[in-house]
Amino acid sequence: MTTERILEGLARRETAALARAITLVENQRDGFERVLSHAHALLGRGSTRRVGITGPPGAGKSTLTEALIQRFRAQGLSVGVVAVDPTSPFTGGALLGDRIRMESVSLDPGVFIRSMATRGAQGGLATTTEEVADLLEAFGFERVLVETVGVGQTELDIARTAETTVLVLVPESGDGIQALKAGVMEIADIYVVNKSDRPGADKFRQEVEVMLGIRRGNAFRHVTPHQADRGAAPSARPPATEGESVRVRPSDAWEPPVLATVATTGVGVDELVAALDHHYAYLQTSGLLAERRRHRLAARTRAVLERKLRRWLLEATHVEELLALRLDELADGRLSPYDVAAEILAQVKAGGNATR
After folding, report:
1. Which of 39-53, 95-109, 179-193, 273-287 has the lowest mean pLDDT?
2. 97, CA 20 to 30 Å: which among 16, 233, 237, 282?
3. Percentage above 70 pLDDT, the chain
């Protein structure tokens, strides 16, 4: 299908045209930027809200996503889902497990689910995920859910994709506590302890709340200080070391809730939906919604520029050919990767072909 026909199909809200447009964008075929430019002109006009759902493997993200879809559909809202699956190291394809796990909603005409391969992107988020989310928003879906593979701290990418980020944890996961210490805990607007019917769930939820309080600097503000050691002075928190500044959280700042859910039975899902609404209202009233969108657009422009430069560098300067010519020298130590990279860059700056 030509780019023109895809655009015509999108204007008629044809699901088949949307699927083809996503494939075009995923594979960066001719015309994909024209389709994305068309979609960009339609962004911000409707009532679309983007929600990112992330967390460690096995936390029940897909089941929770399915439960959210059911609640949104009950409200009469259309839902688009981008489910980022791990990429096969052999074929480059995705497992597509999320579509199978969301079988109960996959046949709903008001729901569109697209599984994507990570394609080696760090943090489990495909480079084109945000662009696919743009297509879903431009198509008119009122809720766009982006569910990512929970593989580490570089899930920070999702924070730039969604207005609201939900971090899903499970009670018995030791990785959850490690996540509390890592950057992934900095990105979430809402925290969910899923599978909260399991032993230790309440204790784990309290640990998350305390850790978040520590990060805010007010974890023990309601705890009466006591004398822990002989001669120790009462103190709610250790004094700041030299050069350390104590960050005070503004009274009107968003306080991330820590919710308990059982996605398989629907327990706590209504509370999660309410929290999503409250956070979106907060973003609107605080002016952060427009600010986040501006930051997202700036980051997108940089990413597009980097992609174009990378493609130009690999294609126009024939980097691979130079690497092949220098491989023997690299292998026997006569040249280092830094020497070859510097040679390529010097020839690019000089306007010459890297193979000359």
Report:
1. 95-109
2. 16
3. 74
Res 227 pLDDT > 90? no
Cα distance between residue 55 and residue 272, in whole Å: 15
Burial classification of residue 193, based on how many CB atoms lie within 10 Å of its CB (0-12 exposed, 13-18 middle, 19 or more buried): buried
User: Rounded to the nearest 5 degrees, what angle is found at the Cα of 257, between the Cα atoms of 251 and 263?
Assistant: 165
Strand partners, 267: 262
**Alpha-carbon distances of 130 from 109, 300, 301, rounded to whole Å:** 23, 9, 12
Q: What's the rounded Cα separation, in Å, for the pair 286 and 252? A: 9
pTM, two decimals, is 0.81
At residue 9, the pLDDT reads 96
How much is the pLDDT for 257? Answer: 94
Distance of alpha carbon 67 from alpha carbon 84, whole angstroms: 18
Distance, C-alpha 35 to centroid of its chain: 22
Q: What stretch of H or E contains 346?
A: helix 337-349
Q: Tell me the CB-side half-sphere exposure of residue 315, using CA atoms within 13 A.
A: 6
Selection from 256, 255, 95 nearest residue 191 by Cα: 256
Q: For residue 232, what pLDDT is reported?
A: 42
CA distance 55 to 230: 43
For residue 247, the 8-state DSSP code is P
The CA-atom distances, in angstroms, between 307 and each of 22, 37, 126, 157, 323 are: 18, 16, 13, 16, 20
